[in-house]
Amino acid sequence: xxxxxxxxxxxxxxxxxxxxxxxxxxxxxxxxxxxxxxxxxxxxxxxxxxxxxxxxxxxxxxxxxxxxxxxxxxxxxxxxxxxxxxxxxxxxxxxxxxxxxxxxxxxxxxxxxxxxxxxxxxxxxxxxxxxxxxxxxxxxxxxxxxxxxxxxxxxxxxxxxxxxxxxxxxxxxxxxxxxxxxxxxxxxxxxxxxxxxxxxxxxxxxxxxxxxxxxxxxxxxxxxxxxxxxxxxxxxxxxxxxxxxxxxxxxxxxxxxxxxxxxxxxxxxxx
Length: 271
Hints:
Structural class: alpha/beta
């Protein structure tokens, strides 16, 4: 596997990093990034001694907020650590993502750059043990937050479910993911719903059960509203959530067409 050593920097300084190989079985110390890809427009660059790599605006925003001012930070980022133009490599690396996120020291959930004031106060509210008051304003803010694009991604189901520790990050503000559970919403007298009134699938996963879904059909049902840039990932992103006791014939293969893959999924569920 590849890892990214994100070099220290500040503000608008160029993003600089080093790509290096590591063996997952050696339990390297790293953090794994969970974020929203956004538009596949590679308009930004990250520089290294070997040249430069084009990245998306969302990836650049994450790196800028993640990098430290005085020391490097070792990360695993799918868009950089997997060659997205090589279907063979993707087919080999994607099945490892379950182990990658499980063995990361921490999963950093990057919601996006700061876009509103008082984010710190919003996060502080979720650190409370119980609600001191309930208002439509707080419910509206919570539902708006749960409507952020990150909550609709299919990959986050696996990235969060297997994480040893997860940290929410919105701009430079952070919150332990455990404070954002459905149980905490209830304790604070808030509904864990987005603007459409639906509970995001990632909050439906049981907090203490890493793989609560018993079969592929129920997993597909839970994730049916989730989004993916590549429609094949609506299947591949879920395979890592199946326990070893759930047998299936599905193999990650990005050379396989969407139509053939979906037929295989339907046949598996029927059988």
